[in-house]
């Protein structure tokens, strides 16, 4: 189950020049958490089973963003020099099995 399906919290992120703003709306309690310290405090107050769900969601999001960045870097040719160097090393015998 993704974090977007989580029934207690909804999240919005707004990026202003040099000033990120985070808004966590707790639908059960009506509280708005709007800065990083408040977010950290809210996370620390979660029961362990809810924290585990949040942690898994965060890891999944991080993995997704990593994959998207690698795909974008490949599409834009940013990794081409590394690929060519690896191919040249392989073809010249500077590689070994691991």
Structural write-up:
With 98 residues, this protein is an alpha+beta fold. Helices cover 50% and strands 19% of the residues. The chain is built from 3 helices and 3 strands. It has helices spanning 36-44, 48-75, 80-91, and strands at residues 9-16, 19-26, 31-33. A hairpin with a 2-residue loop joins β1 and β2. The protein is elongated and about 65 Å long. The two termini are 38 Å apart.
Q: What does the secondary structure layout of this molecule look like, with pairings?
A:
Blueprint: E1 9-16, E2 19-26, E3 31-33, H1 36-44, H2 48-75, H3 80-91
Antiparallel strand pairs: 1-2, 2-3
Query: Could you say which overall geometry the principal axes of the C-alpha atoms support?
Result: elongated
Instruction: Say what oligomer this is.
Output: single chain
**Helical percentage:** 40-55%
Class by alpha and beta content: alpha+beta
Radius of gyration, in Å, reads 21 Å
**How many alpha or pi helices?**
3
Strand coverage percent: 15-25%
Q: Give, in order, the helices and strands.
A: EEEHHH
Largest β-sheet summary: 3 strands, antiparallel
Q: Please report the total strand number as a whole number.
A: 3
Spatial order of the strands forming the largest sheet:
1-2-3
- List low-confidence stretches: 1-19
- Round the mean pLDDT to the nearest integer and report it: 78
Straight-line distance between termini:
38 Å
